[in-house]
Amino acid sequence: MLATLDQYYLKIKKNRWYWLFFVFCRISLAYAFLVAGIVKIAGERFASGLSALHPMGAYLEALHHTGSYYTFIGIAQVTAAILLLIPRTVTLGALLYFPIIVNIWLLSFAVRFEGSIVTSPLMVLANLYILVWNYDKLKFILPFRNFPNLGIVEKPKKYSNKFPFLFFSGVFATVGLVVAMARFGYEVMPRNSLSDCKKQFVNTKKETIGFEFCECIHSIGNPLAQCLEAFDTAKKELEK
Fold it and tell me: Based on C-alpha coordinates, what's the Rg of the chain?
């Protein structure tokens, strides 16, 4: 099975379109972390327009006040970005990038943050693609007892230009699925402001309890879990 995967991997490494997508992922991820990291190194609060009463805003406000730890995160992000841009250090950059972006994804999911609930899972997938692209280097640290010794795969002298329709169809379908999950996967979202939060309930049966949920988040500043619990309780009463 591993031998079959290795042969498929060699085929992918010789295709120009897979390589271009690899370059796109590297540049996109590096740009995102350069911007976010520089903000932290400069001592500015990330997403400064987000209220400190918002679940993500409260987290970022507290993180901003951690001082040197906040700066350290920025340095780690910038370092990962630079390593991704240098061909010889891409693998190291992807390994450093991965735990940081997974943490951001899980955080966005936990607090239902619109700002990164779509981008963060896509960034995780892009990071995984880069890691898979560098499988020839990473497989030596994987817990496989036996594997074909292909060595480090060199850049081909001539790429295949055959367009991988199935792969890119999967990419677009995955993007669509992530967007759909972010749009329709939650009954309620705190959104980024009180007005935006209330818009999701306007002219619906849940308008009153929805407005109360938004006030709970953006005006009172209660934890998301507490506001969601109050919303669910009110919804059950409404259904009765």
Answer: 22
